[in-house]
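Sequence in, structure out.
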Amino acid sequence: MPTKAVSIAQDLIRCPSVTPAEGGALATLETLLSSAGFSVSRITFRDENTPDVENLFASVGSGAPHFVFAGHTDVVPAGAEDDWSHGPFDGDISNGVLFGRGAVDMKGGVAAFAAAALEFVEEFGADFGGTISFLITGDEEGPAVNGTVKLLEWAEAQGHRFDGCIVGEPTNPERLGDAIKVGRRGSLSGTITVAGVQGHAAYPHLAANPIPGLLRLLSALDALVLDQGNDRFQPSNLEIVSMDVGNPAFNVIPARAEARFNIRFNDEWSLQRLEAKILATLEGVDLGELKLSVALKRDASESFLTRDERLIDVLTQAVESETGRRPELSTGGGTSDARFIKNFCPVVEFGLVGQTMHKVDECVSVEDLDRLTAIYKRFLRKYLTKDSGAA
């Protein structure tokens, strides 16, 4: 007989909620939580040139402290299903391992904090002297336009004020208990376009080849040493991620050349200063008659570091009590929806082991899923009650 967390995870995995499809995942959570006394709202957000996205907000209890679990039920595509040893949306368990798309990223995490909250309410009742909420989006793996950021604004408009948050992303690199994310580097992406004049390759004097100009620009970016990092963050890094001219012919000088880059930056930089640095570097390259344009993506995010000692200490104690390991306080890796949440309340991230996320045969051990549930429940008991011995 599967535990509550495992059963919830199986039910969620069986919902094909590939971004932006809801796939039944939010409906599953709505039924589960409402039957346990949670107030549940389903909200659809829309924006120009992006798909409509369904989201869920649920809460139980009243007053402060108001703690929120945040996560997503949307998943990346499964790819060729024949490559999977178990169906990506079957939720099969084999030799103590649960298989399926989203098992670790992050339906498993959602299942664990849902089970923990349900068991907590069963133990203490709905009048425990605080509030537990769930902030669940269907847009984390997509454009991230109609998800968490708008759901946070909606919740604030409803009068909700959060004191702390855990995002259930798979933060552990090797073993459960390895790391808690207490911050993230920022992310800045951009597209560089160089416009020249198309022409015959045998008559270059009648054309203006944009490719050498683009190469000079990329060399200037690649030569940048942004910083050396610090005791909080690893060094900032700039990566050139694509270069394209869309030219299938050998005898044509193309009219345009384009490249894309991404920068992961630490708190040595603000977004405004970094944008200025990149633009100044590019504009300092002599392109002659070629024309440069730079488009920076609107989903750029600042770096952040959470300094809420109580939130971090209570979670650290819960992790250590359940796993025997004292987690590293990490700021490594990519971005997550924590970049939006940090504007509303202190936020940390802790979830499952991420080794199989986005892979064929994504999976999680049943033991880890149950242990994560125990960590979350232990955290809630210490954070929300006066049970000082709980962690």
